Structure formats: C-alpha cells, structure tokens
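FIELD: query
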Amino acid sequence: MPQTLPHTSWTPDSVPDQSGRVVVVTGANSGIGYVTARELARRGAHVVLACRSHERGRAAVERLRSEVPGARTELRMLDLADLESIRGFAEGWSHDRLDLLVNNAGVAMVPFSRTADGFESQFGTNHLGTFALTGLLMPHLLAAADPRVVTVSSEGQRFARFDMTNLNAEHRYRALFTYLQSKRANLYFATELQRRADAAGLRLRSMAVAPGLTLSNVLTGGANSTRGRAYGILTRLLLRTAFRPTPEGAKTSLYASTVPSLPGGSYVVPDGPFQLRGEPVLRSRERAIQDSATAHQLWALSEDLTGVHYSFPANRRTGSRPS
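FIELD: result
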C-alpha cells in the first residue's frame, strides 16, 4: 500500500528554499521538465536546462526568465540518444559540484528507430542515456554535500513485461510495450543506484517518480510529430480530455527533488486510482523495487552497452566497493 506523505495537498509553493543548489534538469524545454526547472529556479536554485534543441532550449530559458525575474538559469546542449553528446555534456561541466540531477527527458511510443549508437530509441534514450549521463556526472554529484538523483519513470511501468532478451528490440518491436519496458528500466536503475550508494557509504540519494497522466508534448512532438494528421488530432483530443495540467504532473518530481527528510530509494507517485492523478505518496510495493537480481543484471548490461562504468569510492567502514 502507498505510504501517505505528511501533506494532504502539496503544491510547488511548498518547495523549500533552494538557494545555493546547482541543478540539472534534462528535457527542460517543455512539459514537466520545464515546470520542474522553473519552480526550482523560483526558489533560488541555479538551474541548468539540458536540452537537445538549441532553439527550443533558448526559448524556454527566455520564457523562464520572464516568468521568474532574476532566475539563475543557463542552457546546455544534451542529446540522450547520442553517447558522444552525453560525454561532451559531462566533460564540459564547469561548476564545482552538482547538487541535483533530474533525469526527466525521454521519448514515448515513437515509431521504430535507432539512436546514434545503434540502440532502439526508447531503450537507448530513456534508460541507457539516463544511465550514461548519471554515471559520467557522478564525480560532480559526489562533490556536493547532499546530492540527489531523481529519475522520472511512469505509472505504466507496472504493466511492463520486462524481457532481458529483447530490451534493444532484438526480436520484435511494439512501441507501447517497449516504452513501458524502458520506464521499468528507469525504476530498476534508480533503486539499484541507491543500493550501490548505500553499499559505498555515500550520502547520495536516488529517487524515482511517476508523474501520472500529464499534459506534455511527449506523445505529439519529436518522432511522433510525423505520424500523420489523424494521429495528431486523436492524441491531442485525448490529452485535453484525460490528462491533467502539467504543473500537477511535476509535483512528484519537485517533491522528490526538494523534501529534506525523504529517504534515498523512495518511489514517489500520485495517490489516486492507478497512480494516474492525485497528491504525492511513497510507494514501496512495486515489483521493480524488490527485484534486485534483475536490476543488477540490467546494470551490468548497461555498463557494457554504454561503456560507462560507475566508480564509487570504497566504503570507509568496510573497505569494500559495490559489485
């Protein structure tokens, strides 16, 4: 059962002061990512908007600065579907630390395609890109006093049939099932990252969130923008009638990013039926959270595919490193 959080109604106005924090939000040019970046900046954080498109990213920065005068923001280019871009982003990091990484960017139910590195686009972007980025930024996260990583999964991950032999569309491709599988991978990643941080005795806290049904352009933008007029009309109608406003969907990301007492390994979801809408709650009874064996196997595969190997300092209490 979900664990109800102390607040019966939690809003972006509940976010505590964020002054002094350096933050990266991926996919921050629109949707949940933009709202997350804006509200963190409103509370005083220095927010890096990590975006694939310079034009859309620049427009988002200008909009944010108009909505939050005096906001400390900057734009940096990042394409999670390209390991070279991810490495360039990490190598170009110029701040002395990174306090918070919000892994928000992703694609959803797109036609079959491959990333620049040959991965199926949903698995490659949503999971492998997130895995590589977090690993390459880890030294900067560990330079912070109280670092956090928040990874956006989906309420739909509960329905994924996680097939380790078909993660990269080796055998067949079905857009919906591949998307749900990539979102399950996000939850596996977030929980396994916390296990490894705990084993190393680190202060790092890794959280996962599900936003619920939320208005965004993930179903209509990017690769989905070429799916034809009928798809566009039907999808926009569905978004208007069934999906809640974007700020509501950003609540779980903002909660996981800012609530001081939230324990590492938390999975924050809406409290309504099927996690589709409602106020943030913690949920621990998810198959992916308990399935450490699959998470460990996925981690090893992800290191092999991306070439990114996490380096944690030895646990001072035991002298050992997480395996």
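FIELD: remark
The radius of gyration is 18 Å.
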